[in-house]
Amino acid sequence: MIRVHLRQTAVAVVLLAGCTALAAAQALTQQQIEHRIDALLRQMTPQEKVGQLVQYNGDTPEAATQAKAGQVGSLLNVYGADRINELQRAAEQSRLKIPLIFGYDVIHGYRTIFPVPLGGAASWDPQLIEQSERVAAKEATAAGVKWTFAPMVDIARDPRWGRIVEGAGEDPYLGSVVAAARVRGFQGNDMADPQSLVACAKHFVGYGAAEGGRDYNTADMSEQTLREIYLPPFHAAVKAGVGTLMSAFEDLNGVPTSGNPHTLTEILRKEWHFDGFVVSDYDSIHELVPHGFAADDEQAALEALTAGVEMDMADGVYAKWLPQLVKSGKLPMSVLDEAVRRVLRVKFRAGLFQHPYYTNAERERTEILTPQNREVARRLGAESLVLLKNQNDILPLPRSGKKIAVIGPLADDQANQLGSWVGRGQAADVITPLQGIEAKVPQGTVLHARGVDISSLDKQEISGATGAAPAPVGATGAAATQHEAGPATIEGAVRVAQQADAVVLFLGEPGGMSGEASSRAFLNLPGQQEQLLESIEATGKPVVLVLESGRPLDIRWAAEHVPAIVQAWYPGTEAGNAIADVLFGDVDPSGRLPLSWPRSVGQIPVYYDHKNTGRPSSNDRWHTGYLDESKEPLFPFGYGLSYSTFRYSNLRVLTPQITPAGMLRVSAEVQNTGRQTATEVVQFYIHERVGPTSRPVRELKGFERITLRPGENRTVEFSKSAQVLGSYDPQMHFVVPSGTYDVWVAPNAAAAGVTGTVQVAPK
Ligand code: BGC
After folding, report:
1. Beta-ladder partners of 688
2. How many Å apart are CA 565 and CA 545, to the nearest integer?
3. Cα dihedral sign for 741, 743, 748, 754?
4. Is residue 104 a contact partner of residue 186, using CB atoms and an 8 Å limit?
5. Is 651 helix (H, G, I), strand (E, B) or coil?
6. Is 586 a catalytic residue?
7. What is the per-residue pLDDT for 486?
8. Ligand 1: centre distance to CA 106 (Å)
9. At what angle do helices 297-307 and 317-327 cross, to 10 degrees?
C-alpha cells in the first residue's frame, strides 16, 4: 500500500485577523442521542454500518462517491473549508444522511505552530497549554477539521525513540495533568461547539516503551508498570472527557495493542467505562498479520473489532472483510452494532448531525494565524525554554553596547523552528532566532554565520559512528545582518565570533530527526556541530548555547565547557521572539525538564522514579551503577534555572496521621532570594518506605507555578487525597498501605528541598 503523507506540504490559506464563530449547536441529552442512534441502527444495512467504521486517507477522486454511498465514516488528511463542506454535502446525500468526521494530526498547532508537545510540557503550565490547544482547535475547525489525533500521551523514558518529542516526558503525574489540559483545550466545554475539536488520546498503550527506543518495537512490561506508569495519562484523558482514543502499533506483552482485549475491553471499556470510540493507528489492523497475531486480514479485522477497535484507519481491512464476517456469522451483529453506536455517539456529541457545516470560507479567512494566536505561541514558546546552566550570570544578555554573534545552522533557519509534525504550519510564517535577537537590539550590532549546515544530513553523518566529513573550505561567515553566500564553514564562523563580545550558538537536530520512525542509536549533535561548538568555545568569547531538539542530546562536553545552556526544543512559529524574550530577560526562564537528561546513551533508560535496589549506595564497588559512568542523569527531572534564586524552608505536614480515606496536606515556604521577579515551579514528591511492592525513590504528586517579587516569601500548600499514596499490590489491587511515607517540597526530583513524613493508619 502506498501511504500519502500530507503532513508538511504547503497550502495557501488567506489569513486575516478576526473571529466569527458560528452559533453552537443546541446540545442533545445523552438519552436523546441514544434514541437517535437506536433509530439509525434499525435502518442501517450491514454495509452502511461497516461504512461508519471506515476511515480513508487523503482527498481522493472517489471520496464524494463513497460518502454518498455511505461507504465511509471518516476521512483523514483532508482540510479546507470549501472542500470539507463539499464532501459533507455528499454525505448528506447518502440514504441516512450521516455526516462525516474529518480527522487530522493537529499535534502542536494547526497553522500557528506552538512548541513541540515535549516543549509545551516543559512549561509545567497546564492553563497555558490548554489555551494553546484552544487556539489550535479554533484554527483547525475553521479549516474544516473536526477531530485531532492528539494528544499523544505516551510516557517515554528513552530519548533514542524519536516520538519522545510528541509526549509530555517521563512522568505519569505530569503526563496526566498535561493530557487533561490538552483534552480540555481541544474540546472546550462542548465538543459540539463549532470551534471545538474532538480529541484522541494516543497511542493506547505502552507505545513509548519500545525496546531499544526503536519505533514500532515490542513493549514488554509488568502489569504493575502498565497500570502505574503508562495508563495514568490515558485515564486522565478519559476522565477529562476525551472523545476518542487511538490504539497503537506495538505488541504489548505478546498481544498487539490494536487487537488487545485486555487493554481495549477490560481496562478501557469495563474498568474506565469509556463510551467513545477507538480508531486504529495507520495500517495497524492489517499489521496484526506481520505481527504474527492474525493469519490474514480477515482474521485481523475480526480480532481488532472484537477487542474494541471501532474505526479502521486507512488500511481498508474493515471495509473489505467485515461484511463477509457478519454474513458468515463469525462476527456477531451485536459486536458490529456496538462499534457503530460508539462512532455515531461521538458524531452526535460533536454536533455533526445538527451542524455539519461548522465552518465556512469567512471563518477560514479570519481565524487562522491571527496576531492573538501568535501571541499565545510566543508565550508558550518562552515558557517552554529550560535554562540548564548560567555560569557567572552570563544571561540575560545586555541590550546595548555589545556586539552579539548569532551562530549556528539553526540560528536563521525557519522550517526547523517548527519541529517534527507541523500541521499546516509554514516556514515562511516563522520568526527565526536571529530575527528575534535583532528585534531586541535595534541599535546594536548583530553578526551572523551558520558555521555548518545540517539540512541535508544523511544517516552516516547523523550517527556520528563513522566520524564527521571534512570541513568544506573557502567561504567566510557573514557579519551584521547579512547572510553568508555559499557554503558555511567553521573557520568563517570562528572569524565572526572573534569580532563579537558574546556568542549565541544555535545547535541541535533538524526537526525531521524527531517524530515517527526517527529513532537514533547515538545522541550526539549531528554532523559537524560538535566541532563548531568546540571551535567557537576556543575563541574565549562568552558563549550561550541554545539547543533545539526534540529529545535530550549528549551534551557532556558542552555542560563542562560552555558557560550558559538553554534547551529550546522547537518553539514553533514565534520561535525567535520567544527565545529572545528569555535571552534578554523580558521573560524569566521558568521551563523545567519533563524528563531526566541522560549523560550518555549507555545510561538509558534513566528516570527519576526508579527503585532503590538492594544496593543503592555508591560508596563501594558492589552497588548498582556503572564502572565507567555515573548513574545519575546530567540534569534531573523537574530541573531548570531562573534568573533569580529561591530558598525552600519550613515544611509542615499539616496532616501527620491520615487514613486512606483522608486528605494529605503539606505546606512549605518558598522565597525569592534573588534580585528580580521570577517564577518557580514548586514540586511535591512522595515515597512509601515499606510496602507490598518496592516503591520508587520519589514520585511527583503535585506542582505549582508561583511568581515572586525579590524577597517575597510564599507558603505553598499541597492538599491531595491520600489515594495519591497508593499503588498496585502483587495481586493488582490498588491499595494505600499503612506505614511511613516521606514527603518533599523541592525544586526538582534530585534536590533535597524540604522534607518530612506522614503516617498512614488503617481506617
Ligand atoms: C501515527 C499516528 C497518526 C497517524 C495519522 C500514524 O503513523 O502513528 O500518531 O495519528 O499516523 O497520521
Report:
1. 741
2. 5
3. negative
4. no
5. strand
6. no
7. 57
8. 11
9. 80
d(CA 172, CA 157): 11
Q: Which of 105, 154, 198, 245 to mutate to test the pocket of ligand 1 (most atoms within 8 A of CB)?
A: 105
Residues 6+ apart with CB under 8 A from 260: 247, 252, 307
Look-up: residue for cell 464476517? 325
Separation CA 338–CA 274 (nearest Å): 13
Sign for the pseudo-dihedral over CA of 266, 268, 273, 275: negative
Cell digits of residue 405? 554573534
Residue 236 CA, ligand 1 centroid: distance in Å = 21
Ligand 1 contact, 282 CB (< 6 A): yes
Q: Is 335 helix (H, G, I), strand (E, B) or coil?
A: helix
The one-letter amino acid at 314: A
Three-state secondary structure along 271-283? HCCCCCEEECCCC
On whether the CB atoms of residues 173 and 700 are closer than 8 A, the answer is yes
DSSP class per residue in 119-143 = HHHHT--HHHHHHHHHHHHHHHHHT
pLDDT for 621 equals 85
Provide the residue type at 526 as one letter.
P
Report pLDDT for 686. 98
Residues facing residue 279 across a β-bridge: 246, 311
Kindly state if the Cβ of 421 falls inside 6 Å of ligand 1.
Answer: no
Residue 565: exposure state from Cβ atoms within 10 A (0-12, 13-18, ≥19): buried
- pLDDT tens across 698-734, in order? 999 999 999 999 999 999 999 999 999 999 999 999 9
**DSSP state for residue 632 in the 8-state scheme:** S
Q: Is the CB of 149 under 6 A from ligand 1?
A: yes
> How far does the centroid of ligand 1 lie from the alpha carbon of residue 282, in Å?
6
The dihedral formed by the CA atoms of 128, 131, 132 and 138, expressed in degrees to the nearest 10: 180
Residues of the chain with pLDDT under 70: 1-26, 456-486
C-alpha to C-alpha distance for 460 and 759, rounded to whole angstroms: 56
> 381: closest CA among 552, 573, 545, 547?
573
pLDDT score recorded for residue 480: 42
- What pLDDT is stored for residue 462 in this prediction? 45
506-521 pLDDT, tens digit each: 999 999 999 999 999 9
Q: Minimal CA–CA distance to 476: which of 485, 468, 465, 463?
A: 485
CB 134 within 8 A of CB 380: no
Q: What is the pLDDT of residue 27?
A: 81
Could you tell me the pTM of the whole model?
Answer: 0.94
Cα distances from 326 to residues 98, 341, 343, in angstroms, run 22, 16, 18
Beta strands 646-653 and 663-672, pairing class:
antiparallel
Cell for 250?
Answer: 506495538
Give the H/E segment covering residue 657.
strand 657-658
- What phi, psi does 550 have (nearest 5°)? -100, 10
